[in-house]
Write a structure and sequence with these properties.
Largest interface: A-B, 18 and 24 residues
Number of domains of chain A: 1
Distance between the termini of chain B: 52 Å
Order of helices and strands of chain A: HEHHEEH
Strand content of chain A: 5-15%
Distance between the termini of chain A: 32 Å
Radius of gyration of chain A: 17 Å
Largest sheet of chain A: 3 strands, antiparallel
CATH architecture of chain A: Orthogonal Bundle
Helix content of chain A: 40-55%
Strand order of the largest sheet of chain A: 1-3-2
CATH topology of chain A: Arc Repressor Mutant, subunit A
Oligomer: heterodimer
CATH superfamily of chain A: Winged helix-like DNA-binding domain superfamily/Winged helix DNA-binding domain
Chain lengths: ~120, ~850
């Protein structure tokens, strides 16, 4: 259930950021599409409502670039499902992107902090 | 996007479909677990996922090649559309094939002649070494050559050579073989190793050891059966025995494309004279040395020589001409001009097809409007047009490539004398790449024009039923008219050029060459130096032979000369005038020198202006006499009386008296001025014999070639070893000098005719289209009382306007272009008024004819029908 009052960023997640989220989700271990989608939602406390449809092209793209690899496996309810796992290159990319993201956030915060300076307490 | 995935797109899509299906199941199950009903759960899952098909499409597209795939689809669609209008397609493809094909043919010639490298190793290091005197370049002497060789450091080697004809004793009749005397280092300078045997050694340049020969490959195969045991065997050349020491590799011909024999160069005492400039040279510079560097060095050496030998070498320098330039120089400018001309044809063809396509685009406005309404972007429409143009262009290119063999053969046969080795002109991959490149260019040109015009579709207006969209139609008509005007101007340009050439050739044929070229049989006779070295060949051999030829039936006279007019020139010598102070050799006046038989002038029909002919009383024992030409008198004696003056030629070494003045004969060609010339008797000349080859001229009553065999027989029966070559009529010789111009004229004429035909077709098409568009308007006019005559005049008037505009532009262009290229082709001056008027009238006539049919069709319009016509 989405938190009341929190603006749902439905469909507005930037492509690069979506890649980042997917990669991070896979750090814990291999997962299939459905799991990844729900994991992102859950962990973001339902703020990030990713259109699950846009997940699959993103997964395809990541696989193209060699950051994740896929294989067929059996899911929890004994169904054949396509699993994805992080590759070493993907791991490296994840680290790089994470630090960039943090830089970006810090920068934005600085600007906002300054602008909201006099108003904030 | 990986290639693997591209080829397995289908399978990937299936997997994706399964993956999405599994997602939906899982989500549905979860929803059910959350408490929804089955349908609700399924629906929620689908909403959560989004449009499954779109997802699959997106992934599929990521695996595709994008642009190429759409192009493929467009091409297939284009071909379908084109099949629906076969008439248009056939005409367009044929037109494009014409434009592309002409270019393909010329390109394959240009490619072989201009672009392919010479068949020697490191050809960029090879250059002809010329001696210069002021602005004049010429041959060099052996002492100068040896000094250049010894004192330079920039060359890997320089080799001197002189071409010569040898009488090869064959199985039956002797054959005159073209060969060359070369210094021993010749083959190493060329960096060509003999196929079998060896090259020359330096001591083989000495007298007594120089009777060795290297055979050319083709000669070896044809005359000696390719027998490997030829090395070491003896052959008879010009009456002397030579030992074969090697055979050159196939395809090696230097200095001339027919050189088949190489013999060591042993200069005679006369040729050891520093002032005897009898030889040519070719040099190979060291790797990394530029030709400028080497030339500077040779000039320095020449300056030193000028100081040491002021009498002979004052003012002499050196010039290097890279071998590539020498080989193609003459042909290059002509070929490039031809290339330019066919370029015009290509553009005209494209303009034609462009015009047709504009018409077609007009009639497809509705289709375009619908596509735009359905979401096609402008770029998408342009891509569609490009695909159509490409389809047409590729069709044309295919046709052009298929017929390329014949078109190339046609050009080669037209200009066969240009190409020493016509077989070399092949259709290889470069030609096909060029052809299809040209097709792509055509497609781009075509689609640009259409796209600009037709993609601005006003969707609303077009989709409404019954509206006459005049605005867009008018733009099309203007575009078409511009194209037609441009085509006509191009055709006019070519036509004016062609008529200019015709005129200059006609003028040429009216120039008096100074002799009577008709009914003259000519041939070249290579005399053996060794056989006749002790005594004069003229008295021993030639005089009896001449007498016998004279007595043949059908012969009116026979004469000899070292070099016939128009066949060869550049054999000149400096001279001193008795009574004037002695001038150093390099600054002395010069004249073309010829040795002749007494009857020569009469046989050639050259007029005597002053003094007398040679007579029987002039012979070996009497004082030397010479006859000079009018230019000689004009240039050196200011037209004063010269009979009786005494002249001493460098190459003759004794004083001779001028006894007569004759009319000028053009030595180099009809369109250049005659050179000063002095003729002396063979019997009194030492130099004349040294040249080794004599030309014979026989005046015949009937067709000269009919007597060729009998004349040859006279020689053969007099000396079994004596061959003759170059048997032709004097008319042929004169025609050969005009061969350049004839070639250009042929091509220009052919392409001008093509251009006119294409432009007329374009005009016809455009006028027909315009008339069909204006049917409504014409109907109104006629209903309002306009006569058929008026309509006719109106339509014809418009056509005439286009023709007039095109002609004016074409004429203006021809003035400019002629100035640009006049120096590249002899005789291409601006045509005089007559020729221009002729060209313009021709173009106007053809153009008006093309307009006439549509105009007549306009007059046949039935007003009632027209008024109902949309």
């Amino acid at each position: 259930m989405p938190k009341r009052g929190a603006a749902a960023l439905q469909g507005e997640v930037l492509q690069g950021t979506l890649d980042l989220l997917i990669l991070q989700t896979l750090v814990m271990g291999a997962a299939h599409g459905h799991t990844i989608a729900h994991a992102i939602e859950r962990r973001s406390e339902d703020v990030l409502q990713v259109e699950h449809g846009s997940l699959y092209p993103a997964l395809h793209r990541l696989e193209d670039r060699g950051w994740i690899a896929s294989f067929w496996g059996t899911s929890e309810n004994n169904r054949k499902a396509r699993y994805y796992r992080l590759t070493p290159a993907g791991r490296k990319h994840l680290l790089a992107q994470t630090s960039r993201w943090e830089e970006l956030v810090r920068a934005v915060n600085l600007v906002l902090g300054r602008a909201a300076g006099p108003a904030a307490e | 996007m990986s290639w693997r995935r591209f080829f397995r797109r289908g399978k990937w899509d299936e997997e994706r479909a399964r993956e999405l299906a599994s997602y939906l199941e899982t989500e549905t199950e979860e929803n059910v677990a959350r408490g929804m009903t089955r349908e609700e759960a399924s629906r929620a899952a689908h909403i959560k996922l989004g449009n499954a098909t779109r997802i699959r499409e997106e992934i599929y597209e990521m695996n595709s090649l994008g642009f190429l795939e759409t192009l493929g689809r467009d091409l297939r669609y284009a071909v379908r559309m084109l099949r629906k209008s076969p008439g248009f397609t056939i005409i367009a493809v044929l037109t494009l094939a014409l434009g592309i094909g002409a270019n393909t043919a010329v390109f394959s010639v240009v490619d072989t002649v201009l672009l392919k490298p010479l068949p020697y190793p490191h050809p960029e290091q090879l250059a002809n070494v010329w001696r210069t005197h002021g602005r004049w370049t010429g041959s060099l002497s052996i002492p100068d050559f040896r000094d250049w060789q010894a004192q330079n450091t920039d060359f890997q080697g320089i080799s001197a050579f002189a071409t010569a004809r040898f009488n090869l004793r064959g199985a039956s009749e002797p054959q005159a073989v073209e060969g060359a005397y070369v210094t021993a280092n010749f083959f190493s300078v060329m960096q060509v190793a003999p196929l079998i045997g060896r090259g020359f050694t330096s001591d083989e340049e000495e007298d007594g050891q120089n009777h060795v020969a290297i055979l050319g490959y083709e000669l070896w195969v044809n005359q000696f059966g390719g027998d490997r045991a030829i090395v070491g065997k003896d052959i008879r050349l010009s009456g002397a025995s030579y030992t074969v020491i090697g055979v050159a590799p196939p395809g090696f011909h230097y200095p001339s494309p027919l050189t088949s024999l190489w013999v060591p160069l042993t200069p005679s005492p006369a040729q050891m004279n520093r002032g005897a400039h009898d030889f040519l040279a070719i040099g190979r510079v060291k790797a990394g040395v530029s030709f400028e560097q080497a030339t500077t060095q040779l000039n320095t050496i020449s300056a030193r020589l000028a100081k040491s030998y002021p009498d002979t070498d004052k003012g002499l320098g050196a010039l290097l001409i890279p071998l590539k330039d020498a080989a193609v120089g003459r042909v290059r400018s002509s070929l490039l001009i031809v290339f330019g001309i066919v370029g015009f044809i290509f553009l005209i063809a494209c303009a034609n097809v462009s015009s047709y396509m504009l018409s077609r685009a007009e009639s497809r406005r509705r289709e375009l409007a619908i596509r735009t309404a359905l979401g096609a972007s402008r770029g998408r429409l342009v891509r569609q047009f490009f695909a159509e143009s490409l389809a047409l262009a590729l069709g044309g290119a295919l046709l052009a490539a298929l017929t390329a063999r014949w078109s190339v053969a046609a050009i080669v046969s037209l200009a066969s004398h240009y190409f020493s080795d016509p077989g070399r002109i092949q259709l290889d991959s470069e030609v096909f790449v060029f052809t299809f490149g040209l097709a792509t260019l055509a497609a781009v040109l075509l689609s640009v024009g259409i796209a600009w015009n037709a993609s601005r579709v006003n969707v609303q207006d077009t989709l409404k039923e019954g509206t006459q969209t005049v605005a867009g139609g008018r733009r099309t008509i203007y575009a078409q008219r511009t194209l037609v005007v441009l085509q006509i101007s191009a055709a006019c340009l070519l036509l004016v050029g062609a008529s200019g050439m015709i005129e200059s050739l006609a003028k040429l044929s009216r120039i008096n060459p100074g002799f009577n070229p008709s009914h003259l049989l000519v041939m070249r006779i290579p005399l053996s130096q060794t056989k006749y070295s002790a005594q004069h060949p003229v008295s021993l051999f030639l005089e009896p032979v001449l007498a016998r030829i004279d007595s043949l039936a059908g012969v009116e006279g026979a004469g000899l000369i070292t070099y016939l007019p128009m066949q060869s020139w550049g054999t000149n010598s400096g001279f001193q005038v008795q009574g004037k102070p002695r001038v150093p050799e390099s600054e002395a006046p010069w004249a073309e020198l010829r040795a002749v038989s007494a009857d020569y002038f009469r046989v050639m029909g050259i007029h005597l202006l002053e003094g007398r002919w040679f007579t029987e009383s002039d012979n070996t024992n009497t004082a030397g006499v010479i006859v000079v030409n009018r230019e000689f008198v004009h240039r050196y004696f200011a037209d004063k009386n010269v009979v009786g003056k005494r002249i001493d030629f460098t190459d003759e070494k004794h004083w001779m008296t001028i006894v007569g003045v004759v009319e000028d004969s053009h030595q180099t060609g009809l369109n250049s001025k005659p050179l000063p010339e002095a003729d002396l008797l063979y019997s009194q000349s030492q130099w004349g014999f040294l040249t080794g080859t004599i030309s014979l001229a026989v005046r015949t009553k009937g067709d000269p070639l009919l007597l060729a065999k009998s004349v040859e027989q006279v020689f053969y029966s007099a000396d079994r070893d004596q061959a003759v070559y170059g048997v032709k009529t004097m008319d042929d010789v004169v025609a050969d000098t005009e061969a350049d111009q004839r070639f250009v004229l042929w091509l220009l004429g052919l392409f001008a005719a093509l251009a006119v035909a294409l432009a007329s077709a374009g005009l016809f098409g455009q006028m027909s289209y315009a008339v069909s568009q204006r049917t409504h308007e014409i109907g109104i006019r006629m209903a309002l009382g306009a006569q058929r005559r008026t309509i006719l005049r109106m339509i014809l008037g418009q056509g005439a306007l286009l023709i007039g505009l095109g002609t004016a532009i074409g004429l203006a262009a021809s003035f400019g272009v002629t100035r640009l290229i006049a120096n590249l082709i002899y005789g291409l001056k601006l045509a005089d008024a007559v020729a221009i008027i002729g060209a313009v009238l021709l173009l106007a006539a053809v153009g008006l004819l093309a307009c006439y049919i549509p105009a007549r069709r306009a007059t046949r319009v039935d007003p009632i029908v027209a008024l109902r016509h949309e």
